[in-house]
Amino acid sequence: MKLLLLGANGQVGHELRRSLAPLGEVVATTRSGLLDEGIACERFDLADLDAIGHLIERVHPDVVVNAAAYTAVDKAEDEAVAAFLTNAQGPGRLAEACAARGIDLVHYSTDYVFDGQGTRPYREDDPTAPLGVYGESKLAGEQAIVASGVRHLILRTAWVYGLYGQNFLRTMLRVGAERDELRVVADQRGCPTPAWLIADVTAKVLQQGIATPGVRHLVTAGETSWHGFAEAIFDEAVANGALTRRPVVHAITTADYPTRAQRPAYSVLDCRRLCDEFAISLPDWRSALSATLAGQA
Ligand SMILES: NC(=O)C1=CN([C@@H]2O[C@H](COP(=O)(O)OP(=O)(O)OC[C@H]3O[C@@H](n4cnc5c(N)ncnc54)[C@H](OP(=O)(O)O)[C@@H]3O)[C@@H](O)[C@H]2O)C=CC1
Ligand SMILES: Cc1cn([C@H]2C[C@H](O)[C@@H](COP(=O)(O)OP(=O)(O)O[C@H]3O[C@@H](C)C(=O)[C@@H](O)[C@H]3O)O2)c(=O)[nH]c1=O
Does position 297 have pLDDT exceeding 50, yes or no? Predict the structure, then answer.
């Protein structure tokens, strides 16, 4: 199998390089034409709409895995054009190019397509109502892919973290080493999901093939708040020696931590469809965190 991986330097892209390798030849692309390790790869910008068809034509993969995205949630409020280009128009054009050549497409989306007013885990067909530009642009990307007719799988995930890249875990470890006290919101609930898990599940799904195109939810089991996640990060980090002492983490409300973009208060995702269809069992968020930090000890 020949796989074209877009966004190979992102958190998920980085892990996909590892998990997809056993499936066949992986052609990695980044915006700079360099992997973070300094190795040359294909240069590709998903916002350059005219370049998409040429890349697909030249590489002619069996599957495209798109891990490239505009993910700056607050900044997106002021950069809607850029967010929509990378998250909506680019994926739409990509999907059309794949559809025309019979190439499968795996794409990632977000819990931020929901408004967070739900009271039970969101299912794939629950109504979407993004609260900000990032979520709107990701939803528009989903819709463009579906409209293209490509054989696709859109994996909606959430609260992605890992030891690599920019994410909440790394922010907490950095800030926790510098400060004695932190304030973290306790009234937004979701499912922290490590990038390695998303990459491993993607490989499992591709091994089995896309029988029924559509959206699937992919997050860890259970739920917590950002405050609960921060507390668990510090428990683990102190236990495994990554931090020598534990900062105090004050539980605050969203109103106490104003941000440019509004986030959903509740964005737990129901993953039963994915698990049943591909015989996948997902770890709970706490053990996934332990496993992630064990890689650092
Ligand atoms: N992070 C999260 O918490 C969540 C992420 N997701 C989704 O999962 C997917 C992977 O996200 P994640 O790995 O966390 O994201 P990252 O922000 O870690 O990585 C995104 C990558 O996309 C690249 N990129 C940005 N714009 C473009 C562009 N125009 N053309 C080509 N590449 C571009 C970036 O490259 P560069 O380094 O050059 O900027 C970066 O390497 C995305 O679809 C995201 O929306 C879903 C839910 C939660
Ligand atoms: C750093 C920090 C954040 N927070 C709050 C702000 C916010 O409400 C919440 C999460 O903060 P962040 O800005 O790190 O996370 P955010 O960028 O909102 O993360 C989102 O990214 C996109 C890409 C997604 O798709 C989502 O699933 C989600 O993971 O924690 C604190 O309360 N205290 C802190 O010290």
Answer: no
By percentage, how much of the chain surpasses pLDDT 70? 99
Active site residues: 134
Is 70's C-beta closer than 6 angstroms to any atom of ligand 1?
Answer: yes
Ligand 2 atom nearest to 185, measured from its CA: 32
With cut-offs at 50, 70 and 90, classify the pLDDT of residue 295: confident
pLDDT at residue 241 is higher than 60? yes
Which ligand minimizes its atom distance to the CA of 183?
Answer: 2
pLDDT of residue 124: 98
C-beta of 89 in contact with ligand 1 (< 6 A): no
Write down the domain spans for the chain. Answer: 2-161+192-220+269-283
Which of 11, 70, 71, 73, when mutated, tests ligand 2's pocket best, judged by the most ligand atoms within 8 Å of its CB? 73
Looking at the predicted complex, does its ipTM rise above 0.95?
A: yes
Q: State pLDDT tens for residues 19-61.
A: 999 999 999 999 999 999 999 999 999 999 999 999 999 999 9
Angle between helices 168-178 and 226-239 (to 10 degrees): 60
Q: Which two tokens stand for residue 58?
A: 């030249």
The structural architecture, per CATH, of the domain 2-161+192-220+269-283 is 3-Layer(aba) Sandwich (3.40)
User: Atom of ligand 1 at shortest distance to CA of 66?
Assistant: 43
